[in-house]
Amino acid sequence: xxxxxxxxxxxxxxxxxxxxxxxxxxxxxxxxxxxxxxxxxxxxxxxxxxxxxxxxxxxxxxxxxxxxxxxxxxxxxxxxxxxxxxxxxxxxxxxxxxxxxxxxxxxxxxxxxxxxxxxxxxxxxxxxxxxxxxx
Length: 135
Prior knowledge:
Elements: H1 2-12, E1 14-17, E2 26-31, E3 38-40, E4 52-55, H2 63-67, E5 73-80, E6 86-93, H3 98-110, E7 112-114, E8 116-118, E9 121-123, E10 125-132
């Protein structure tokens, strides 16, 4: 399953560079199974668009992790409702460092999202908010 997930991450990921500064992370949003029924978008001009990060919160490598010369990638499982509001965030795949994992969850909670639109209906669902602190 993890190999399949990685393939999906490469194929369908949205990449958003947060900052060019040292210690800043890169995030991407990957769909997981579990899209739910949605609400119709009035005046729909674009019938289908993927979910996206509309305003990414800064995800900086925590000082304690930097001081230990550790980095990693944390995958945070997020749930979005049909309006794009975050309803849940938890670690899906740990970096192996609790400080990095906490920073990734905090970045997901502080970010804003746009829900997927499919056939002119907003769809809630689950996604992996992948935070890469290895850059």
